[in-house]
Amino acid sequence: MRKLGFFGLTIPEAYGGLGLTMEEEVLVVFELGWASPAFRSLIGTNNGIGSLGLILDGTEEQKRRYLPRMASGELIASFALTEPEAGSDAASLRCSAVRDGDDYVLNGTKRFITNAPHAGLFTVFARTRGEGAAGISAFLVDAGSAGLSLGKPDRKMGQRGAHTCDVILDHCRAPASALLGGVEGLGFKTAMRTLDRGRLHIAAMCVGAAQRLIHEALTYALERRQFGQPIANFQLVQAMLADSRAESYAARCMVIDAARRRDSGANVSTEASCSKLFASEMVGRVADRAVQIFGGAGYMADYPVERFYRDVRLYRLYEGTSQIQQLVIARNLIREATA
Ligand code: COS
To answer: Residues with Cβ < 8 Å from 169, sequence gap 6 or more?
Structure first.
């Protein structure tokens, strides 16, 4: 995948990536979702939340320093926003960054950080001044920095091929040049704009995983015989396959439409949240039906549906829970109506 340029799918060509449009990116992500939701994380963060803050708000010097090595796969990037006490309420994060001479000194713990065990660079969100969103800044912190250490590997229900752990910052020194964009107080908006794209990427993953689950369930239903015939002949089984096909098609259309809108320069905060909400809930239902069609065999680790069932549960949780997507959609609706 490294040789084929997968680590730099969305990094601009000027920095050594393939510079795919969002529409092109989601087409690739459909395939990654089909193949392995967990393995996707290794390249997914370089093409999404790991690099996007830098692409959106980094200085030219910061981009030139890191993006070419990310695009080649030499440098794995990671996005460190979540904390033990700051999940859905990201603006309440407590990690602090205090200016000390030519450096910032960072203190705090970041939780569930995807790719942390492999990362060479973390985009760390920390509080430089005051309460709330306006007090948050983003820093590009090298993994080898003194004072940065990793917690024990997280033991997860699924997505075990995606490695996550705590990132602990204990008087970790980062040079002033590590401040993303060179300006304090922009970090929260960088995180939100990054997640707008990241959520669309996750929605595309859900579509790919759903298509794989339907393929597995259909293949099994055509082979498995009960009452003297393939179970695919039974209308109750057909109804499950048909609902899954219809719902995954709807999600696919949403994701492609939102991606095209983003490529045309539109703000897709609402469309990204709609896509992630619908697609992640959809793939949960599709995985559940796939296990049902397999019957007892679907509960066994012998078939991929058991792993997919566990893997796709995460999509309703990370990069914003379903409830956070509902909140974003409703807030945007009300803002538009009252503007
Ligand atoms: N793009 C640009 N700016 C945005 C934005 C977006 N999508 N969303 C919010 N902002 C801006 C707002 O305009 C506001 O700026 P001003 O004060 O200048 O108007 C600022 O950011 C704060 O926004 P808001 O008041 O809406 O922040 P809240 O604390 O109410 O929280 C939610 C917003 C809940 C949407 C946010 O905390 C969130 O997304 N939480 C989930 C976090 C998440 O996804 N975690 C997963 C981590 S990665 S696996």
So the answer is: 95, 106, 107, 108, 109, 110, 124, 126, 141, 147, 148
Residue 98 CA to its chain's centroid (Å): 29
Is the CB of residue 211 less than 8 Å from the CB of residue 283?
A: no
User: How would you classify residue 112: left for phi > 0, otherwise alpha for psi between -120 and 50, otherwise beta?
Assistant: left
Look at the pTM and tell me if it is higher than 0.85. Answer: yes
Domain that holds residue 204: 189-338
Q: How far apart are CA 151 and CA 168, in angstroms?
A: 7
User: CB within 6 Å of ligand 1 — which residues?
Assistant: 81-82, 88-91, 133, 188-189, 192-193, 195-196, 269, 318-320, 324, 327-328
Domains of the chain: total: 1
For the CA of 133, the closest atom of ligand 1 is 22
User: Is residue 115 domain-resident?
Assistant: no
Cα of 92 from ligand 1 centre, angstroms = 11
In the annotation, is 25 catalytic?
no
Per-residue model confidence as pLDDT tens digits over 92-112: 999 999 999 999 999 999 999
